[in-house]
Amino acid sequence: QVHLVQSGAEVKRPGASVKISCQTSGYDFSAFSVHWVRQAPGQSLEWMGWITTAQGTKYAQKFQGRVTFTRDTSANTAYLELRSLTSADTAVYYCARPRGSGGRYSYLDYWGQGTLVTVSS
Amino acid sequence: QSVLFQPPSMSGTPGQTLTLSCSGSSSNIGKNPVNWYYQTPGKAPQLLIFSNDQRPSEIPDRFSASTSGSSASLAISGLQSEDEADYFCSSWDDKVQGWLFGGGTKVTVL
Predict the structure, then answer these.
(1) Given CB atoms, is A116 within the 8 Å cutoff of chain B?
(2) Shortest CA distance from B43: residue in chain A
(3) pLDDT in tens for each of the 110 residues of chain B?
(4) A44–chain B Cβ distance below 8 A for any pair
């Protein structure tokens, strides 16, 4: 069974950084990219980007320069780090596994349970 | 603000057919596949439809989808109480070079 298990909720001060983990099991982690999507309270989903099997990254323009995706194949785990947090970053952050031919032809078939990040002074 | 437009809410009675819409443009739905996800309160999104009209094996055939030009639609036939959820369309956008999600449609079963 495919599982993506994320780290627990975080509370951060404005200006701080947060690092979220996404530990996977039940499939060959080294053969799949990982996508990150966030959802502010009561809002829709917002795609943040992906990290490929070769450690290549694609970041949504909005997050360029402020986010870093990494992955540790030995631990079957992906990470998201977001810096210079503001209250607008308060959201649930999801990791997800893509299927399909890649890029625009992908779809997200398994999702982590989400990690709530609250940014508050 | 989402570039993919979905009506914020729709409702129906059990057994009814609901059709949800997702309106985009030539840079997204007009040339790229559409995926649909659903989400119940407090849960992660789940894949409902991929590549415009393909259902994962675990999704009942009451759910169907299609695209036409720069718009997509999701039909839920034989509406059931368990179909109450938020439904999101998604497509790659060539202008922003990233994925977009619609604002979501909250489906209520009366």
Answers:
(1) no
(2) A113
(3) 558 999 999 999 999 999 999 999 999 999 999 999 999 999 999 999 999 999 999 999 999 999 999 999 999 999 999 999 999 999 999 999 999 999 999 999 99
(4) yes
